[in-house]
Specification:
The protein has 435 residues and is of the alpha/beta class. The protein has helices spanning 36-50, 76-83, 89-103, 107-116, 130-137, 154-158, 161-168, 187-194, 205-219, 238-247, 257-264, 279-292, 337-348, 369-379, 391-399, 413-420, 426-429, and strands at residues 16-20, 27-28, 31-32, 54-58, 121-123, 144-146, 173-176, 200-203, 225-229, 250-253, 295-297, 301-305, 319-322, 331-335, 352-356, 385-388, 408-409. The strands form 4 sheets. A 6-stranded parallel sheet has the order 5-6-4-1-7-8, with helices on both faces. The chain has a 6-stranded parallel sheet with strand order 11-10-9-15-16-17, sandwiched between helices. It is globular and about 70 Å long.
Length: 435
Amino acid sequence: MNKMTVKDVKDWKGKRVLVRCDFNVPMKDGKITDENRIVGALPTIRYLMEHGAKIVLCSHMGKPHSIFSDEVKLNKKDKAKVEKGETTAEAVIEKALKDEPKKLTLAPVAARLNELLGGKVTFAKDVVGPDAQAKVAALKEGECVLLENLRFHWEEEKRDLEFCKKLAAYCDIYVNDAFGTAHRSHASTAAIVEYGLVKTAVCGFLIEKELTVMADSLDHPVRPFVAILGGAKVADKLGVISNLLEKCDTLIIGGGMAYTFLKAQGFEVGTSLVDDEKLDYCREMIAKAQAAGKELLLPVDTVITKSFPDPIDAPIEVRTVDSHNIPADMMGLDIGEKTRELYAEKIKGAKTVIWNGPMGVFENPTLAAGTNAVAAALADAKGATTIVGGGDSAAACTQLGYADKITHISTGGGASLELFEGKVLPGIACLNERE
C-alpha cells in the first residue's frame, strides 16, 4: 500500500481535520444494535485526539427518502399503496419529511461516541448549517464534533461543488477511514479531494488495514490460494469471478449463483434461482479455469425444498440430492453435506482464503449449514491468512462467534467486492501517495 496514512502527517496539533467515517450502523427503535463500525473507527479518532487535532467527523446513515434529492421517487412499497388508492404520493412525502430525519439521524451514534471518548464529542444538528458551523468553530484541540447525516443533502451523492466547498471549509486535512463507502464517488468520499479543495488527504487506520491485508493478499498471496464466492446471482459478481480466476488456485462457488453454473453444464436444477442471461458467461468461466489450469468447484449435492420459505426463517421440510439431478419441481437453497466436506477440506489445505457471499439462505436455521460450515472451516484454517469480504459472510462469522479466529473481516461488502474485482476505489484513489 503506497497511500499516505495519518502517521505520515508530522504535526496534527491545532489542525482542523475532516474525518469521513462509516457510522451506518443498524438501528432499532432508536438504539444501536451493532456498534462494530463505531468501534472500528476509534483507533484513528483517538490517535488524532491524542495528537491535538480538532476533529470534524462525518458519515451517512442508511438511504434517506429521496425527498432530500432534486428528484422525488417513491419506493416500491409506497408505489403499491398509491396504486391501490390506500394513500397519495403527497401524503407519503409529507410523512417522510417528518419521519426520515428521526429514523436516520446520527444523534445516537454521537451519544455513543461521547461515552467511548471521554465526553469529548458533540453533535451538530445539521451538516453545513449554522449549528455545524458554530460547533466546528468552537472546537478545542482533542475534541470532536459529529455532523448530521450527510445524505440528508442530495448534494452528497451528486458530488455538488458548492457542497464540497462547505465541507472543505471545515478542515486543513482530510482523512478517509470509511472503507465501506470507498467505492462510492460522493462529495465526502472523493470529490472534496478530486476538486482540489483539500491538499492533504490521507487514510485512517481502518482503511490502511483493509488495504494492507486484502489488497496485499490478492496481489501477493501465499499459495495455495482459495477464493470462495456465494450469494444469489452471477450478475452481481461477473468481474469478481473473472479476476479471481486469474489470481487464485481454486475458486469455490456456492449460493444461488451455483445453479446458473450447473445449468450451464446441462444439468437439471429444477426451480432453483438461475440467471439465464449469464449461462454463456458461466461456460466461458469454466473454460477459462480449464485453460489456466485452475480448479473451479461447484456443489456436488444440494439441500432442496418445495418452495422458498415465507417468512424467510419459517420452518421447512428439506432433503438432500445430487446437484446434477434436482427434481423439476424443487429448488436448491443450500449446499449439501458432501459439498460442505469437500469445501472444508479444500480450505484446510490453503494458505490464503478469501470469502464473499453465503452458501445458501443462511437466514433460515434449516438452510444455514453450508454457510456455517465454510465459516467454521475458515476459523480452523491453521497457518492461513483468512479474509471475509463483509456483508452476509461477515455477519455469519460474527453471529457464530468465529470473528476472533479470522485474520480479517472487512467492514465493506460492496467495497471489498470491487477490490476483489480489481477495480480502483474512488475513496482511496484520491488520497495522497507516499513519496
